């Protein structure tokens, strides 16, 4: 009894330390997110659109992770062990993140040129270097958070650097609405919270049995759980960031520019498809079905529902693919609801702030599951 109490106190203390250090990191990120960029005349920019040292965010890391996952899913499989495969993927993601950060910083410098104090080459190099440095700092912090706290570092970084500001601005704008729009806004936020909770808490489970249990009719199978869509938020962010780049090219197409109605339908349909597609790949990035299948084989376990001649890995991939695509479809419908509400209440910017709300609720649930539970379980 005494041992259990002491062990519980240690867990509680450990949990408190982890939460404390997490919020220290969050405070540092909040400070860095307010550090201005050099060579920029901020008096020429509105308060709501003033880039900071961390202007690149963690999108280079998110996009690199997605591209690496797609690349590794289509290339021929090798005989590398899990650790070597993991090391190679992490190296590819780091290299990809740096390349994307450089490319994005160059486009940022080009867009910020009109508000620079000086248009000299040196000023542009200093500005680009600052943007790249801020992006690399966020990538390092994101990876450190993932390893130290067993959280999604990208989500935590986004929450502290931009989501909090977006949510405060969203609530401030909604407070100026009339009663009916306020009620619609409240119901919308509840719907987003419910969807986030469903995505975070729900799982798809596969019953598994050992070879010995298979011969015993009284043995109950164990359950192998998987999150139904672990990459939901990253899918939305990736889709929106790619869509912003594509819209630059779309606006150059004459037949789309002439008809804004057709253009909005085309962009909406493209967004719908991208969200479902990225939902699958961002989720697959976090679940290695090949590794799970090997572990089951090592433990001499088999999935009850699969066909006798079907390989475990193929069965898992097929089932998880359906699950992730279905969850992505639900996410796309939520985005569609945001677009419809945006037509009636454009000043709030529900669609633009949907990812921020999902990140906020998702981070809160993740903190509850991974950190606070450590100190509450007896």
Strand order, sheet with most strands: 2-1-3
CATH class of the domain at 175-372: Mainly Alpha
What is the helix content? over 70%
> What distance lies between the first and last C-alpha atoms, to the nearest angstrom?
11 Å
Give average pLDDT, whole number. Answer: 77
**Taking Cα atoms only, what radius of gyration do you get, to the nearest Å?**
23 Å
Which percent band covers the strand fraction?
A: under 5%
Element-level helix/strand string: HHHHHHEHEHHHHEHH
Low-confidence blocks of residues: 1-13, 374-378
Number of strands: 3
Judging by the overall fold, what is the CATH architecture of the domain at 175-372?
A: Orthogonal Bundle
Secondary structure class reads mainly alpha
CATH homologous superfamily heading of the domain at 175-372:
SecY subunit domain
CATH topology (fold) name of the domain at 175-372: Preprotein translocase SecY subunit
SS element count, helices: 13
Largest sheet: 3 strands, antiparallel
Overall spatial form: globular
Multimeric status of the protein:
single chain
Protein name: SecY-type transporter protein
Organism: Characiopsis acuta
InterPro entries: SecY/SEC61-alpha, SecY_CS, SecY_dom_sf
Subcellular location: Membrane
Please provide a written account of the structure.
With 378 residues, the protein is mainly alpha-helical. It has a domain at 175-372: Preprotein translocase SecY subunit. 73% of the residues lie in helices and 4% in strands. It has 13 helices and three strands. It has helices at 2-32, 59-74, 82-112, 121-149, 153-174, 179-201, 211-214, 232-250, 254-258, 260-286, 289-298, 312-344, 350-376; strands spanning 203-210, 222-227, 301-303. A three-stranded antiparallel beta sheet has the order 2-1-3, sandwiched between helices. Residues 1-13 and 374-378 have low confidence and may be disordered.
């Amino acid at each position: 009894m005494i041992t259990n109490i002491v062990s519980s106190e240690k867990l509680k203390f450990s949990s408190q330390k982890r939460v404390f250090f997490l919020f220290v990191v969050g405070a540092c990120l909040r400070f860095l997110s307010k550090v201005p960029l050099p060579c920029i005349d901020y008096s020429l920019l509105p308060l709501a659109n003033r880039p900071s040292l961390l202007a690149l965010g963690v999108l280079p890391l998110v996009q690199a992770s997605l591209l690496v996952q797609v690349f590794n899913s289509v290339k021929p499989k090798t005989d590398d062990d899990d650790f070597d495969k993991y090391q190679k993927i992490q190296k590819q993601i780091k290299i990809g993140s740096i390349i994307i950060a450089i490319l994005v910083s160059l486009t940022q410098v080009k867009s910020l040129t009109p508000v620079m104090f000086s248009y000299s080459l040196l000023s542009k190099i200093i500005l680009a270097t600052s943007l790249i440095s801020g992006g690399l700092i966020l990538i390092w912090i994101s990876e450190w958070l993932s390893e130290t706290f067993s959280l999604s570092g990208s989500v935590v970084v986004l929450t502290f650097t931009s989501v909090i500001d977006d949510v405060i601005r969203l609530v401030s704008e909604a407070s100026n609405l009339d009663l009916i729009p306020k009620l619609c806004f409240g119901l919308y936020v509840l719907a987003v919270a419910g969807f986030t909770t469903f995505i975070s808490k729900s799982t798809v489970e596969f019953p598994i049995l050992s070879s010995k249990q298979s011969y015993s009719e009284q043995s109950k199978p164990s359950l192998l759980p998987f999150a139904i869509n672990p990459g939901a938020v990253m899918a939305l962010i990736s889709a929106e960031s790619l869509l912003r780049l594509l819209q630059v090219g779309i606006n150059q197409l004459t037949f789309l520019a002439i008809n804004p109605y057709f253009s909005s339908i085309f962009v909406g349909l493209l967004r719908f498809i991208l969200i479902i597609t990225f939902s699958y790949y961002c989720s697959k990035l976090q679940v290695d079905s090949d590794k799970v299948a090997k572990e089951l084989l090592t433990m001499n376990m088999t999935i009850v529902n699969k066909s006798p001649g079907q390989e475990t890995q193929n069965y898992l991939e097929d089932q998880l693919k359906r699950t992730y695509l279905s969850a992505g479809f639900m996410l796309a419908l939520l985005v569609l609801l945001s677009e419809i509400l945006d037509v009636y209440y454009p000043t709030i910017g529900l669609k633009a702030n949907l990812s921020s709300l999902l990140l906020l609720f998702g981070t809160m649930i993740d903190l509850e599951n991974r950190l606070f539970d450590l100190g509450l379980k007896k």
